[in-house]
Amino acid sequence: MLSSAMVFAQEKAEKPKDSAAVKTNRYGIRTGVDLFKIARSSYEKDYKGFEVVGDYRLTKKYYLAGEIGNENKTTDDDRLNFTTKGTYFKVGFDYNLYENWLDMENMVYIGMRYGVSAFSQTLNSYKIYNRYQYFTPTQTIESGEKFDGLSAQWVEVVAGVKAKIINNFYLGFSFRINKLVSNKKPDGFDNLYIPGFNRTYDGTFGAGFNYTLSYMIPIYKKKVPVKITN
Q1: N or C: where does the chain have the smaller number of CB atoms within 10 Å of the terminal CB?
Q2: HSE on the CB side for 60, CA within 13 Å?
Q3: Cα–Cα distance between 96 and 94 in angstroms, integer?
Q4: pLDDT digits over 138-190, tens only?
């Protein structure tokens, strides 16, 4: 009997137990800039742009997110040369698909935005359609006509990544597919480029991406127990 009791006690001592670790979830504001727009402004002479990005953690998985920026772009098309100037903002949410371990704060997310842009278009020059270009050269007309008070609204589907690099700094990138909801066009001209939306394709669709560096300002923390099975 004594021997059996000792064996039972030894087995009980060697049986794996569940231990608990504490995971700290930080909640705060993360803000930064789009590095791609800054770089593009330096090497592309016909483009100037700047964008501020930000998000705020609402729950374990959901983040309130948005962007605000401005663009000044001259487009030289086959028949048109025009300049677009304006500002925009987008607001929506991100949902983090990535399950972080302990104090990691990385994101692999999907989300949506609603975007609004106010801008102007300046028609610098245009070419008159010439059916017989071989015999007579195509004529270019200098215009300079400006169209003010233009606006557009759209929805975006977003997919992206944010990774913590050092302390509270994060690098990230995202891809966006856009669909116009409304588009105020000037008479006799089309909005071929919209700040924040980018180039329009088939009239209502667009696409874009950003590459961001951001910094998190922690506001409060929540400690969550995590079970670890040995």
Answers
A1: N
A2: 12
A3: 6
A4: 666 677 789 999 999 999 999 999 999 998 999 999 999 999 999 998 887 88
Distance CA(7)–CA(4), nearest Å, equals 5
Max CA distance (Å), the chain: 114
Q: Which of 69, 52, 169, 55 is nearest to 109 (CA)?
A: 55
